[in-house]
Amino acid sequence: MPIPMSMELAGVQLEICGNQAGLVAANTTGLIIVRDSVANEATDTIYNVRTNLTLVLDSTFTADKMEEELLLNVIGSDGSTLVSLAPTDSMIDDSLMGFLKKDVGEKIEIGFAGSTEKNKFLMLENATRVTLTGFSFHLLDPEAMVDPQITQALDTYEKYGNNIAKEYDEFGWIGTAEASFLSDMTEDLDSRKESMSPKQLERYLKLRKRFLEYM
User: Fold this and answer.
1) How far is residue 57's CA from residue 9's CA, in Å, rounded to a whole number?
2) How far apart are CA 127 and CA 33, in angstroms?
3) Distance between CA atoms of 212 and 192, rounded to whole angstroms?
4) Which end of the chain is less enclosed by CB atoms within 10 A, N or C?
């Protein structure tokens, strides 16, 4: 009996495993595992196999590194692994980190390849579970990439605003030019809010609230 060139894993639920598994969902109701032809179909018992899997982004995430190796595992009815397939993209880490920054609903197709024995290939049609393991990423600390020019601008803003506040406390008034300059600094920082890190933005909003009465 000829060995089929592909096996369809219809209706087998795919489980995504890893510390960021909840960020994506599998866009599939089944997988098709395709094998390459062999030199001698009667005697060769090791098959090279491949498949594609599409992931849909459920939540954005900014990562600076992938923490585990991604593997697609097909599990048989007895709990044994029939085949483990690795991504064919040598830059999969970068591809996935870029994908995770995109808008919710975006998709990425990943090619997987591996090898398995002839008898295990024939068992694929009765597989009960598929797992995508290693979907683990390290969260990029937004404070690790702060713009030092914004930090310097905030330092200047705080120093100048404090001096104006001190002058107001001592004399009960401040000059129009000083108030105008503080307002210009505030406007400049307002235009740079999207480039601020979370801590820079928090600091700026507190300072702006404190200095509002002097503008």
Assistant:
1) 23
2) 11
3) 18
4) N
